[in-house]
Amino acid sequence: MSVLRPLDKQPGLNTATILLVGTEDALLQQLADAMLKEDCASELKIFSFFSHLARSLPLPSDVNRPRIDLIMFVVNLHSKYSLQNVEESLRHVDATFFLGKVGFLAMGAGQESHCSIHRNTVTKLANTYRSPLFFCDLEREGFRATVAQRLVRMLQICAGHVPGVSALNLLSLLRSSENPAPEDL
Fold first, then answer.
1. Which of these, 16, 46, 61, 97, is most buried using a 10 Å CB contact count?
2. If you compute the radius of gyration of the chain from its CA atoms, what whole number of angstroms results?
3. Are 93 and 132 in contact (CB under 8 A)?
């Protein structure tokens, strides 16, 4: 079993690569397109592994794959399969990635009456991995554009393209703006 490590590849000059892991191929493609439209000094590379290309991690062993700077696990709150896919994929990520280079997106939070997965379940998952969690509605263009902006900024920081700010700094800032986890009280 191959484990994805943050430093298993050399960084590219002025490039930043995000890996989107989720089962919602059409919505993730729209998010990737919105990210590529953002004004960014870095060359963005977006690896999207949807259910029809790769059901989950591990990634195929490809020697030409660039270094991955940020992994976003996308959970559709309307699909238990989506959560299961993310949980299985997490086992293939090296623990050092969780030092600010992993995040979670929870889609479909705006339609809570239709949710198969409770928001607390995803919140607990993100807290377990000490990673940021964003609730979003990728079906609405305005929200998708806002999420894309935030992800691009996170990606730039995780790739080391923002002077004076590291992925750990970002993680600390994001954690301090959230409510504390129950075990931290």
1. 16
2. 15
3. no
Cβ-proximal residues to 155 (8 Å cutoff; 6+ apart), any chain: 16, 17, 18, 35, 42, 44, 69, 70
The one-character DSSP state at 95 is G
Task: Evaluate whether 18 touches 151 at the Cβ level (below 8 Å).
Answer: yes
From the CB of residue 4, how many other CB atoms can be counted at a distance below 10 Å? Answer: 17
Residues 35-73: pLDDT tens digits? 888 876 666 666 544 322 344 576 666 656 677 889 999
| Distances, alpha carbon 155 to alpha carbons 49, 83, 116, in Å | 17, 23, 30
What's this model's pTM, rounded to 2 decimal places? 0.81
In which order are the strands placed within the sheet that holds 102-107? Answer: 43-49, 15-21, 70-76, 102-107, 133-136
Residue 1 burial class via C-beta count within 10 angstroms: exposed 0-12, middle 13-18, buried 19 and up: exposed
